[in-house]
From TrEMBL:
<dbReference type="Pfam" id="PF04082">
    <property type="entry name" value="Fungal_trans"/>
</dbReference>
<dbReference type="InterPro" id="IPR050987">
    <property type="entry name" value="AtrR-like"/>
</dbReference>
<keyword id="KW-0472">Membrane</keyword>
<protein>
    <recommendedName>
        <fullName>Xylanolytic transcriptional activator regulatory domain-containing protein</fullName>
    </recommendedName>
</protein>
<feature type="compositionally biased region" description="Polar residues">
    <location>
        <begin position="17"/>
        <end position="36"/>
    </location>
</feature>
<dbReference type="GO" id="GO:0008270">
    <property type="term" value="F:zinc ion binding"/>
</dbReference>
<keyword id="KW-0812">Transmembrane</keyword>
<feature type="transmembrane region" description="Helical">
    <location>
        <begin position="536"/>
        <end position="560"/>
    </location>
</feature>
<feature type="domain" description="Xylanolytic transcriptional activator regulatory">
    <location>
        <begin position="280"/>
        <end position="354"/>
    </location>
</feature>
<keyword id="KW-1133">Transmembrane helix</keyword>
<dbReference type="GO" id="GO:0003677">
    <property type="term" value="F:DNA binding"/>
</dbReference>
<feature type="transmembrane region" description="Helical">
    <location>
        <begin position="496"/>
        <end position="516"/>
    </location>
</feature>
<dbReference type="GO" id="GO:0006351">
    <property type="term" value="P:DNA-templated transcription"/>
</dbReference>
<dbReference type="InterPro" id="IPR007219">
    <property type="entry name" value="XnlR_reg_dom"/>
</dbReference>
<keyword id="KW-0539">Nucleus</keyword>
<feature type="compositionally biased region" description="Polar residues">
    <location>
        <begin position="44"/>
        <end position="75"/>
    </location>
</feature>
<feature type="region of interest" description="Disordered">
    <location>
        <begin position="1"/>
        <end position="75"/>
    </location>
</feature>
Length: 566
């Protein structure tokens, strides 16, 4: 097709009309009789200009988030690309809240990279070290050296029998409810055979799962250990079991059975607890690709066919892995690993492990499912996938912005309404006293979702009413996230990952940006409330930094707040 001489093109080769020209309807977007002014996106500090040349199908509401039917995605036609690095918070340079790109966050000219801190357990080998020097810490280099057999193999003993069974029970108490990657009866049978059958030799996948349970427990206790020497020892023990398991990477990658993906997923989930992001992203992407090759993203049973152990484990492995990949890619501003319409694997059924068998479900007994929180987290991860794919995509149609937001908020409400009673909590004080940690995390996830969905930097509209509503919702949501995080702090249940640290700082910057916008009208009482909120956030950040082994993030935010009179 020939274009007029006044047409320019973007980096992807798409035509962009000269902003001074209005004569060519085919290029300017008036072909459907729509006025340019109705779709123009303001170049102001809370929004960005986009072109909506190509008509996209309307967003369809009313989709169910039942365990059998994950919310279906809506296909999008290609529209004009947005500027590079438009992740959560990225906006024009004049924006008060201008960047939260992966682990780098900027506001009012100040930048924080929560990935830049000294952590002996995460550092690569120094430049003057000998090539291929053995390294067994949590760094990407160490992971690659072990996975590719550059590191000499470690000899790691299993813990004594009594300790091993205790650690297993702790694992199923602390980690399993959120990430039900293992079937408890199967794993406990494996553990029994390991210690009671002298002739038993576990497969590589079984070996990895055993060592990753120990690595996970040592890591959790190392994170919360206050004595430096004991903390260092626990981290070293965790790293040894992790690297021993990682040394089986070749066996898992070449065997390529369901249990091998399960074992790889355990490694991926473990690395997601590291203070930095590289290991988790790399191993998760590989494991997800292997899972797709085994069709874990597709339904294994026909509708009405019933379920059994294999079907449920396929779904649990898939959604544990997919949720981790979605969280990593979304928070780091990378493309989503899969579209929801390409995945028809249902969500796991909340069935207690003791009732799941190879032949079906034991209906003669009724037992409470201990991983309801994990199932709920899997379901909202599908919503996150839809949000990142539609609201944070590289190409978006401004005409679809509001329908998409409204539909996703409707689905979020459906998700909240469908939560089990044990995961619903309105009184945060009661949650603190009764220990409803799972309910607090579900409330935190829903608020984080709304913050990302309504963030002003991704609002493809210049409607003052919508922009004001977005700002109001984000500020209220950030305030609610502070209250939830404070409750988790008092329960000593704060998350200790880079992901949550990034969310905490995003909430802080959202609050600061909102107050900055109305700084000339602020009352003394509002300023005092802001000071108190920032002090509380810094307390949470300091505790999180201490648990992660660094206080650098809290230090940067503290300097920023001081410099701006917070």
């Amino acid at each position: 097709m020939a274009y007029p001489s006044n047409v320019v093109f973007d980096s992807a080769g798409n035509p962009i009309s000269d902003p001074t020209s209005t004569s060519n309807d085919d290029i300017s977007g008036n072909r459907n009789g729509n006025s340019d002014s109705s779709h123009d996106i303001s170049k102001g500090q809370w929004s960005r200009q986009y072109n909506s040349n190509i008509t996209s199908p309307k967003w369809t509401k009313g989709r169910s988030l039942s365990s059998r039917s994950p919310m279906a995605s809506i296909s999008q036609d290609i529209v004009e690309p947005k500027p590079a690095d438009a992740h959560l918070g990225v906006n024009t340079d004049q924006a008060p809240l201008s960047s939260i790109k992966g682990t780098t966050l900027s506001i009012l000219g100040s930048t924080i990279d929560i990935n830049l801190f000294d952590a002996p357990d995460m550092d690569e080998t120094p430049p003057n070290a000998a090539a291929r020097s053995p390294l067994y810490n949590k760094s990407l280099q160490a992971m690659m050296q072990t996975a590719l057999n550059v590191n000499p193999p470690l000899h790691v003993e299993y813990p004594p029998k009594a300790d091993a069974f205790t650690y297993a029970e702790w694992y199923f108490l602390m980690i399993y409810p959120f990430l039900p990657i293992l079937h408890k009866p199967t794993f406990m049978t494996l553990l029994t055979r390991l210690y009671e059958d002298a002739g038993f030799v576990p497969t590589p996948a079984e070996t990895v799962m055993l060592h990753m349970v120990y690595a996970s427990i040592y890591l959790q206790y190392g994170i919360r250990q206050e004595q430096p020497e004991q903390k260092s020892r626990l981290h070293e023990m965790s790293n040894n079991h992790y690297h021993f398991a990682l040394g089986k990477f070749f066996d898992l990658a070449t065997s390529r059975k369901l249990v091998d993906v399960q074992a790889l997923t355990m490694i991926a989930l473990h690395t997601s607890r590291f203070p930095k992001t590289d290991c988790s992203h790399m191993i998760t992407c590989y494991a997800l690709g292997m899972a797709i090759e085994l069709n874990l993203h597709r339904a294994f049973k026909q509708p009405g066919e019933g379920t059994n152990l294999e079907n449920e484990m396929r779904k649990r492995i898939w959604w544990c892995l997919a949720a981790t990949a979605i969280a990593n890619s979304g928070r780091m501003g990378r493309p989503m690993p899969i579209r929801l319409e390409e995945c028809d694997a249902g969500f796991p059924e909340p069935i207690a492990d003791e009732l799941l068998t190879r032949d079906g479900v034991d209906t003669s007994r009724v037992l409470k499912c201990p991983y309801e929180v994990g199932v709920a987290a899997h379901k909202i991860s599908a919503l996150y996938l839809e949000m990142y794919s539609n609201v944070y995509a590289a190409r978006r149609d401004p005409r679809r912005y509001l329908p998409v937001v409204e539909a996703l908020e409707e689905q979020l409400q459906n998700w909240q309404d469908s939560l089990p009673e044990s995961l619903k909590i309105d009184d945060l004080d009661r949650a603190e006293h009764e220990g409803h940690m799972f309910a607090l995390y579900m409330k935190f996830l829903s608020n984080e979702f709304r913050l990302c969905l309504r963030h002003p930097s991704v609002a493809l509209t210049n409607d003052p009413g919508i922009l004001a509503e977005n700002a109001r919702i984000c500020e209220a949501t950030a305030s609610e996230m502070l209250r939830i995080s404070h409750s988790l702090l008092k329960l000593k249940s704060l998350d200790t990952t880079w992901y949550c640290l990034a969310v905490y700082i995003a909430s802080i910057f959202t609050t600061l940006a909102a107050h900055w916008e109305r700084r000339y009208e602020a009352t003394a009482a509002e300023v005092q409330t802001l000071r108190e909120d920032m002090s509380l956030w810094l307390l949470i950040l300091t505790e999180t930094g201490n648990l992660m082994g660094t206080s650098i993030s809290a230090y940067f935010v503290y300097l920023y707040c001081l410099s701006h009179g917070c």
